[in-house]
Amino acid sequence: MKELIIDASTNLLYIGLINEKEADYITRIGKNDNAAYVVEMIKDLLEKNNLKIDDIETIIVGVGPGSYTGARVAVTVAKMLAYTKNIKLKTISSLNLLSTGYQNVLSAIDARRGYYFVGKFENGKTIMEDDYLSFDEIKNEKNLIVITPETIKVDLHLVSENSILNENIHELEPNYLRKTEAETNYDKKNDHK
User: Fold this and answer.
1) How far apart are alpha carbons 170 and 147 in whole angstroms?
2) Which of 67, 112, 88, 120 has the alpha carbon at shortest distance from 3?
3) How far is it, in rounded angstroms, from Cα 88 to Cα 166?
4) Which residues of 76-95 are buried (b: 16+ CB within 10 A; e: fewer)?
5) pLDDT tens for residues 35-91?
6) How far is Cα 153 from Cα 174, in angstroms, rounded to an integer?
7) Do 186 and 179 form a contact (C-beta atoms < 8 A)?
8) Contact 77/6 with Cβ under 8 angstroms?
9) Which own/partner contact pairs does 20-23 have at CB distance under 8 Å and 24+ positions apart?
């Protein structure tokens, strides 16, 4: 089985590859510019492993929560490749994907203004669905890991085991968990009229 893994929900762009039992990956820490590098990094990882996109049987994409733009980019690239190349598409929570290297973890991504996107996982299995909580609600939790480039631990085989087949590529959307700041401001502006 040859599987390509894509996640851009944080400032760390993660591209992984499972080639039978072997696993490989590359990363890049971006400055709000990972969209410009995702396709090139996929190409580089495939070339490094003597593969072409036509060799890939499954694409697994981290659907968020996290960066709105990053999640959109990863999902769009995964959908485009899956559709045009007739490749199976699977999804996984980015919180789960980026913390599969931990046995028991409350994984958190900073959502700004004192809030975090959080999910609880045990050996890659979901114990608590992704949620949007304040830091006060999670600060005393055992096994809390705030996802940063330094704390990301990925077990690509657990990612593969715990990803879910997407039945309809066209309906796949990122998991945002909350409105964007622009949407919130728009709603506030229109409520005052």
Assistant:
1) 29
2) 88
3) 8
4) bbbbebbeeeebebbbbbbb
5) 999 999 999 999 999 999 999 999 999 999 999 899 999 999 999 999 999 999 999
6) 22
7) no
8) yes
9) 23/156, 23/157
